[in-house]
Amino acid sequence: MSRSQRSRSPYYFFVREHLPLLRQRGLPVSRVSDGIPHLSQEWALLTKEEKMVYAEKALKWKEKKSLQAAAKEGPKNPVPAHVTTETYRVTSLLDASAISWMSDQAVVADIFYFLDIYSHGKLPSHCDQRFLPCEIGCVKYSLKEGIMADFHHFIDAEVPPLGFRYHCQAASDATHKIPLSGFCLSRTCYPVVIRELLKFAQPAGGACPRFYCKSDGRFRISWCLERMARVAGVWRSLELLTVEDLVIKLHQKECQKEPSNAWVFRELNVVLWDFSSNTRCKWHEENDILYCALASCKKMAYCISRSFAGSYGVSLTAAHLPLEDLYFRFSHNLRQLILDAARFQEMKARGSGRGKCILSPSRVQDLVPSRCDSSLLLKMSSYGTSITRGRGVTRWLENTRDLSSSFSH
Fold it and tell me: Based on CB atoms within 10 Å of each CB, which residue in 5, 269, 307, 345 is the most buried?
């Protein structure tokens, strides 16, 4: 093997990518070595994040060559099995027994990290790339303080395997709608994402970060974390639990009995805050797209706040729930919307009078149920004007007043 093939730097991949541009300038460059003297200034102007993209390519190339060399020398120098299975492990999948508190005060003060990672679909098991992570969201939450901080990035995903590009784009179009290429917003490479996530989640005392996710996405999130950590060369351990186990433990400590699976599913899968303001990321909010990794994390926090804040004596604030939307969203986010034109006109006329009821934030907090009580939600229906965005029939109902005034002119 020649010297140029033994190691390839990030600058090598940068030059190789820009060879067509050099040829367009009329420069006689047929190989990467010919283009190296011509791009030094362009390389110096790149930001640290942009250079990390090429560093990632160089690391992948080095890993591939190392695996090929190990395969050739396998009979002479066998690699222990535990090295290949544990070297890159970044997550440990814990069960509910890992969650415990000494007192109610410990429950209220405990900090939880809710995490979700979206991918461009799921590839078959024979593919080395099972997922192509494209968006990550995480929130820092406690029952006492509510959502304390949030973390969000669009991820620079890997190139789909040959023949799977349409499969990946179709899966994206059906959910989060993040395109594989030509995305208008900047994306962050794997090493930057994983290091900033670890910097964001820093529990007291130097303990390992403990993240919670939904059970149906646990394998996807675990795989994506390990993939990004392997590329970044991060060896720190992360603990990944399911938010369903957290809800069960909180309910057991409060009621001394285990809740039903149906109740847990209902608590975590309500659509009450799907279109609440300050829930989705800016891009998904502006494009009115429901699926958003950051919104998925925030809705976990909202559901736990609504279910357990009253039981543990916590006063709800805007950090616990989107209170500016709460009064209006009880009728707009139910799974079924009942249309009654006569009743709507009556409620609209009544609401436009001087006796219109305006609730203060403290009064709105009193209306928050501690359980998912559908009868209470139906009693709180309102047809006031909402400052948030909806879609379909809900948006049409909110704009009816503007339409009627325009026709009158």
Answer: 307
Min mean pLDDT across 1-15, 369-383, 385-399 is at: 369-383
| CA gap 44, 41 in Å, rounded | 5
Q: Any bridge partners for residue 239, and if so which? A: 92, 210
Alpha carbons 165 and 406: distance in angstroms, whole number: 47
HEC string of the chain? CCHHHHCCCHHHHHHHHCHHHHHHCCCCCCCHHHHHHHCHHHHHCCCHHHHHHHHHHHHHHHHHHHHHHHHHCCCCCCCCHHHHHHCCCCEEECCHHHCCCCCHHHHHHCCEEEEEEEEEEECCCCCCCCEEEEEEEEEEEECCCEEEEEEEEEECCCCCCCCCHHHHHHHHHCCCCCCCCCCCCCCECHHHHHHHHHHHCCCHHHCCCEEEECHHHHHHHHHHHHHHHHHHCCCCCEEEEEHHHHHHHHHHHHHCCCCCHHHHHHHHCCCCCCCCCCCCCHHHHHCCCCCCHHHHHHHHHHHHHHHHCCCCCCCCCCCCCCHHHHHHHHHHCCCCCCCCHHHHHHHHHHHCCCCCCCCCHHHHHHCCCCCCCHHHHHHCCCCCCCCCCCCCHHHHHHCHHHHHHHHHC
Contact between 330 and 272 (Cβ < 8 Å): yes
In Å, how far from its chain's centre is CA 381?
A: 31
The distance of Cα 119 from the centroid of its chain, to the nearest Å, equals: 10
pTM of the predicted model, to two decimals?
Answer: 0.61
Percent of the chain scoring above 90 in pLDDT? 24
Produce one character per residue of 385-406: b if its CB has 16 or more CB atoms within 10 Å, e if not. ebebebeeebeebbeeeeeeee
Cβ-contact 267, 307 below 8 angstroms: yes
Examine the pLDDT at 333 and tell me if it is beyond 70: no
350 or 243: which leads in pLDDT:
243
Nearest to 306 by CA among 328, 281, 331, 323: 323
**Is 297 within 8 Å of 137 (Cβ atoms)?**
yes
Residue where the block lists tokens 């899966």: 171
Instruction: Please give the Cα distance from 45 to 62 (Å, whole number).
Output: 25
Please report the sign of the dihedral spanned by the C-alpha atoms of residue 214, residue 217, residue 220, residue 224. Answer: negative
Range in 91-105, 155-169, 376-390 the model is least confident about: 376-390
